[in-house]
């Protein structure tokens, strides 16, 4: 479920903290710390409040917002509480991570420029999510007391299965006096006011204490084949068509699928080794075992596709709910149900969030309460959402435009929350095709926020991703071997201006223009998301009902005229009876929207404007002659701009892209070749019908 706390600001939290700590402050406690826990993208999730009293010690409590009220408690984290400063850990993958007890100490080390974190109190290690530290170099700094040593020991035991390189500060060499019980990194800094980052890094280190037995040579020798056989028998090993290796492993009452190179599988494997003889292989031995399992998966396992969030098989559709039970919705032409053992393999990027358990009895019309759209546009948005639940593209691109105050970002979050919620609900525009590819590898429905313009090469990449295509990159910067990633994804873009202007992109798009919301109709953000979260399970259920109806009706759908996105149009048209729409209601709205896209193409292109401003009935000549003619119908500053074609070939290319839009305006443009040999030339003919 989408975490409601991500919609609360630090200012809101501080205001709530003042209200909830009045009693303690009246007793003499003084605020001394306010610590913000975030998700991987830096969005706030919850906070921890610290107050100190001159005689009664410290008072520390969590603070969170549950959608309707603030409480002094942590949100529920099925996969473990996030680490403090998680977004910094993720964004600085090559740095050593210092782990201490308490946020105050982590902040003190961060002042030196060190990457420091904590899970909170001395007893919190077992409830935290340590997976982001997989494979990292880690240094623990225990407090100078029994609780501190136990905490460091517990942290170590959590990290060993994750292939971390772990050292610990030797607190016996910090110069603590007999009366320094409980001293920590903050106290050391106070005693060494001139200390630098280099001084901290130069502290004496020792191997950490742990109760887990590790051996450098296990599994090896005679035990390795036996262990390999046991592991292979306890899971399903297979590979995908690009030779990547995976395992489907049993976890309690369900199964999970992991890449063999992932931290999740490495942790499971370490756990299996520990179950076998109460020992965990050290890093290299664990790596050797994984490499052996990759051989089994690649050469002895079946080839099977893997999916993120949505899959199709045997005319049925499967939607991964993303919950800790790995529940999946199976949609057929007879209805839908939640199952635990689907016939397809889902993998889960770390950013994937869970969908609510869908509920029956809802209406898709409820969606209109949460989107700032008119009736015609609501038809298109519902159509887009329905086709997002089709495993086969090509997909339309949803373009959301509107002034400030039109709730564009809210619109995008609502859309993603119903199909593919993620810790990064809306991202900034991808800088290049490589970044776009990474986004596609980590989600099903991609959302990009606050775009101002889309360059030609990125426009082409977005079209290729929506239509279905391959993206290539080198596997390593040190070699020339090519890695191909193929994907087809639905995409949602938003921005203030008409940021998309190229005709091939607009021809694949649904353009939704949002009106500005007057102040009298604005909702408090907390109330809005609380209402949406309450309605979301039934809206999702209603979407699933409609998709089931589509699967039943689709074989009987015939379109009078097939548009560019014919599969999309047929899919949504098949839902019209279940939606209560009149026959052809969707196609009528879709055609009007495509006309809007062509108007944008013509209005934003200087060559198109020159042709429209040129009062002609017919003309013919070469591209060079046409360029000269068009310049006579264009302002000099436009001709000098970088957007005006500077050659005959550039003009020809631009005309080819403008043909569909100009044809709608009554222009018939064709190119022919005349003459022979050296006298042969390419002629452009323009006729106004």
Describe the structure in your own words:
Helix 21 packs across helix 23 (648-664). The two termini are 56 Å apart. The model is unreliable at 1-6, 214-218 and 474-481 (pLDDT under 50). The protein is built from 23 helices and 30 strands. By secondary structure, it is of the alpha/beta class. The chain is globular and about 100 Å long.
Q: Can you describe this structure in just a few lines?
A:
With 689 residues, this protein is an alpha/beta fold. Helices cover 36% and strands 21% of the residues.
Question: Major sheet: size, sense and barrel closure?
Answer: 5 strands, mixed
Shape: globular
Number of helical segments?
23
Structural class: alpha/beta
Low-confidence stretches: 1-6, 214-218, 474-481
Task: Tell me the strand percentage band.
Answer: 15-25%
Q: What radius of gyration results from the CA coordinates?
A: 30 Å
Mean pLDDT: 85
Q: Cα distance, first to last residue?
A: 56 Å
Record field, number of beta strands: 30
Q: Topology of this structure?
A:
Elements (H helix, E strand, L loop, with lengths): L9 H11 L1 H5 L3 E9 L5 E10 L3 E9 L4 E2 L14 H6 L5 E3 L3 H8 L4 E3 L19 E4 L5 H14 L5 E5 L15 H7 L5 H5 L3 E2 L6 E3 L7 H12 L1 E4 L5 E7 L2 E6 L3 H15 L1 E3 L1 H18 L1 E2 L2 E2 L2 E4 L2 E5 L7 E5 L2 E5 L5 E2 L28 H14 L8 E6 L5 H12 L13 H9 L4 E3 L7 H12 L1 E6 L7 E6 L3 E5 L7 H4 L2 E6 L10 H29 L12 H8 L2 H4 L5 H20 L1 H8 L4 E4 L1 H9 L4 H4 L8 H17 L2 E8 L6 E8 L1
Parallel strand pairs: 5-6, 5-7, 7-8, 10-14, 11-15, 16-21, 22-26, 22-27, 23-26
Antiparallel strand pairs: 1-2, 2-3, 3-4, 8-9, 11-12, 12-13, 17-18, 18-19, 19-20, 24-25, 28-30, 29-30
